[in-house]
Amino acid sequence: MSAPSPRPRVAVVFGGRSAEHSISCISAGSVIAALDPEKYDVVPIGIARDGSWVLEDPATNRLELGPGGVLPSVRSETAVQLVPGATAELVVNDAADVPRVLGDVDVVFPVMHGPFGQDGTLQGLLEMAGVRYVGAGVLSSAVGTDKIHMKRLFEAAGLPVLPYVTVTPRDWARDEAGVRRRIADLGLPVFVKPARAGSSFGISRVDDLADLDAALAEARQHDPKVVVEAAAVGAREIECGVLAGQGADDHRTSALAEIRVTSEHAFYDFEAKYLPEENTALDVPADVPADVEARVRELSVAAFDALDCEGLARVDFFVFPDGRVVLNEVETMPGFTSLSMFPRMWAASGVDYPTLVDRLVTLALGRDVGLR
């Protein structure tokens, strides 16, 4: 058994079974590099595409976008388990040796994107193990990953969203004609999205209803539940970061950012997000009127609270030419890659990347386990 670490042990968990596996790896690589090794004992834990947990080594598996856009993945063969108890422990299972205890875990930084990680499943495991972790809890993680239920909570809180139609397998089987009619009533264009996917996977813009079936099929490759949204024609895409307050402190909001997609892309798709920046123009801080900025900040905190978020979130908006501000979605674990907007917005607000990561770990270490 290893001796207790004099520094808080941070297990950075990444990868997973979702389509966003590689984006999670890239985000985690940046987080691991930013954590001060003199302050924290950092343990990189990868979740392979088959769901197995392994002890990764960033020195031998570079968790970054490779030449020509080659995506990284978890590939270690050293199995590891998180064993719950009075204190949760990491146990390494080496096929050539007896299991060995790596040590207690003080906090987990789950740099997970998409289903089977960001959606409350990992958070539930950590809650059962009694381990503190960075970011949203079980319910807000689940709702924040499901665009349909997220919109319903926003509507219940009186927050503005675009018109939308849900398309579940049951809806389609019982009333396909009715679903098609409701989608047609949204007007064109519409965006067809998997309900529980991110990084723009499976999203299609539909300008002709003749293309609807193909768009639905594409979305269903990622999720049987689909949401079809009216397009925000002429609107600007504005984002804002939120950091939870400590104790009675108010939540903090970042400088705003604007995403402007070049003519080669119909929308902010995967290539525009993660491949070379000639695909997009990213303005941080965004050039918006003071009243619009105030409204975005206000709605960011309202959306954060409507989902009962913890730690952090990125809140995305559409701002129309008349100044109307409409919520798009909340990301409970936004991207942490070098191209990601959340760290950029906080850098523009005077919080550099290492300080941001340190603040999130400090917030997590200071919160209670169990019901909050």
From TrEMBL:
InterPro entries from the UniProt entry: ATP-grasp, ATP_grasp_subdomain_1, D_ala_D_ala, Dala_Dala_lig_C, Dala_Dala_lig_N, PreATP-grasp_dom_sf
Species the sequence originates in: Nocardioides zeae
Subcellular location: Cytoplasm
Spans through the membrane: none
MF GO annotations: ATP binding; D-alanine-D-alanine ligase activity; metal ion binding
Example GO biological process: peptidoglycan biosynthetic process
Signal peptide bounds: none
Keyword Nucleotide-binding: yes
UniProt EC number: 6.3.2.4
Amino acids binding Mg(2+) 1: 316, 329
Limits of the ATP-grasp domain: 151-362
List of residues binding ATP: 147, 191-193, 199-200, 229-237, 328-329
Main localization (coarse): cytoplasm
Presence of keyword Membrane: no
Pathway linked to the protein: Cell wall biogenesis; peptidoglycan biosynthesis
The protein's name in its UniProt record: D-alanine--D-alanine ligase
GO cellular component, one term: cytosol
Annotated family: Belongs to the D-alanine--D-alanine ligase family.
PANTHER family linked: D-ALANINE--D-ALANINE LIGASE, D-ALANINE--D-ALANINE LIGASE A
